[in-house]
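To start, an entry.
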Amino acid sequence: MRIGHGYDAHRLTEGRKLILGGVEIPHDRGLDGHSDADCLLHAVADALLGAAALGDIGRHFPDSDERYRGIDSRILLRETVRMLREQGYTVGNIDATVVAQRPKLAEFLEHMRENIAADCGIPVQQVNVKATTEERMGFTGALEGIACHAVCLIGQQEKTQFL
């Protein structure tokens, strides 16, 4: 078994949709980035890539490549899982945290879990997504951006039996 950690953050900006976990969230600003800037899925992909010692999403999906401009990050997550499977790994579980002062995310968390589970090819019971604030501290508390952390467990397909 191998453990991975991922982190991503993006600045909030006007004129963009706010997408987290593949879910469009009603908000007056969205996240700035080359792709759809879904920092939750980026953190999950980085955790998976890190666990498999395959680098990070910047290495595989660089912002210098126009193919990834505006791309749906769910596509990037599915490609990440494909790379892991190619290396003989399967996803055991994922636990992720969205750090945002606003908007409140509780009503969207289950849909995010479902999207991540579907894209990783695992049961939704193996995915957890939660949200927290930083009590108005730091860049997330000042409403400048949103950050996400993710951890995961992966194992060799032929050797690991996850419950």
